[in-house]
Design a protein that fits this description.
The protein is of the alpha/beta class. It is 18% helix and 28% strand. The chain is built from 7 helices and 24 strands. The longest helix is centred in the last third of the chain and has 22 residues. The model has no long low-confidence stretch (mean pLDDT 94).
């Protein structure tokens, strides 16, 4: 490596996972063409990497906020392109980062513009999932299995239940990042975690009601009611909570369904919604060996499936529907249209929606690697998730900000609420 060439990560090399970082290089020759690379390893040991071929300016400097990539895993001016364009070294692997205590470490480097060009400079970016002062507390209370994240400071803070649930186990990433933004967040597991069943055949709304009641009792919580954030299958659980339970003030539904999917839903020992089931014969194979699963879930509008539709008009809280227009898991945009029509038919206006063109199924907190395909837990085969990397990455940045604004607006806090719990 050359001591004259410097790779800088600004404003600092240690930042939150959901914060952008500015990549700069200095000390190159005038107009020198180099390759910038980024490399990281996820929790499962899968290596992700990206590259960009960039030409320095007349002073031998590169700034990815100004200078375009001429080739590599992305092209054009994309300040965070080296992060979202990372690709796994094994096909059909989704980036896994579910634990909050260990940072996501990304190694950036500058190389001479050749396939195996020598390294000229390097820097390490530690992307934290849990912010300074955020308290992480594992919860094993009553039936609840999860982790509670509490922001620093006296509060009061709005409360959010994170239903990042399907696939089993527990994911802390989104919950811990939201806590760093000023929310008390409980993320819960439905199955496959600690002493819970490895698999389930039904979902009980009572469990999620218990989680809401637990959140409301936390002494730093000042919101009158809780918010719920979901993704995919848990979108219908969030809508069912808003429709059947008290105290759900705001729901973020991300690429879910308008019907209760996959497993029957029970409340107080009675089934309240049957399951809309998949038809695996509708899987469409592609030449590359992966599958298109968009038509696998049966049509909730068909007469025989009407009983699975969630009576979303019963919801008193605010609803934010976020849909990817190129979602290949199922037709999220069509489900939004169905729910909007149903709500309007019942004279309701407690909703807003945002649709993102060119985006796929997994809309996550920003700056993680885009996932075009991976193993589908229900289908049991690798499937395409839809979208393209650039549009998907931009949508994640926009939606992450919108989610926080939505919860702050509709989960107003009252300091007297917290004092009453002390």
């Amino acid at each position: 490596m050359s001591s004259q060439i410097r790779l800088s990560l600004l404003p600092r090399a240690r930042c939150m996972f959901d914060e952008p970082v500015q990549v700069k290089v200095a000390g190159l020759r005038s107009r020198q063409v180099v390759t910038l690379r980024a490399r990281s390893t996820d929790e499962k040991g899968v290596v992700f990497s990206s590259s960009a071929t960039v030409r320095a300016d007349g002073s031998g400097r590169i700034d990815l906020e100004r200078d375009p990539s001429l080739g590599g895993t992305y092209t054009g001016v994309e300040p965070m392109g080296l992060l979202w364009s990372m690709r796994p070294d094994t096909l059909h692997k989704r980036f896994q980062r579910t634990k909050s205590l260990n940072p996501h470490v990304v190694k950036f480097s500058v190389h001479e513009d050749e396939e195996e060009g020598g390294m000229l400079a390097q820097a390490t970016n530690e992307r934290l999932l849990i912010g300074d002062g955020v308290i992480r507390r594992p919860i094993k209370e009553g039936n609840i299995r999860g982790v509670l994240f509490t922001p620093p400071g006296e509060g009061p803070f709005p409360a959010v239940l994170d239903l990042y649930t399907f696939g089993g186990g527990l994911s802390e990433k989104r919950a811990s990042l939201l806590a760093g933004r000023g929310f008390v967040v409980l993320t819960v597991a439905l199955y496959g975690h600690e002493d819970m069943a490895r698999n389930i055949k039904e979902v009980h709304l009572d469990y999620l009601e218990e989680a809401v009641e637990f959140l409301n009792k936390q002494f730093k919580v000042g919101s009158k009611g809780v918010g719920v954030i979901s993704l995919s299958k848990s979108g219908d659980l969030a809508l069912s909570m808003a429709s059947y339970l008290r105290g759900v003030r705001a729901v973020v539904w991300i690429n879910g369904c308008s019907a209760n999917t996959l497993l029957p839903l029970y409340y107080k020992k009675s089934q309240i919604l049957p399951a809309l089931t998949p038809d695996l014969s509708q899987l469409i194979p592609t030449e590359s060996g992966i599958f298109n699963a968009k038509k696998v879930l049966n049509d909730p509008r068909a007469e025989e499936n009407e009983a699975t539709l969630i009576p979303v008009e019963r919801a008193e809280g605010r609803l934010l529907f976020a849909a990817s227009e190129d979602d290949l898991n199922w037709d999220s945009k069509a489900y939004v249209d169905m729910m909007v029509e149903r709500l309007q038919r019942h004279g309701k206006d407690n909703f807003e929606s945002v649709c993102y063109p060119g985006t796929g199924h997994y809309l996550e907190p920003p700056y993680g690697p885009y996932c075009p395909s991976s193993l589908h837990g229900v289908v049991g085969r690798p499937v395409m998730w839809g979208g393209e990397a650039r549009s998907h990455a931009a949508a994640e940045v926009h939606l992450w900000k919108k989610i926080q604004e939505f919860f702050r607006t509709h989960l107003s806090c009252d300091a007297t609420q917290t004092k009453a719990k002390l």
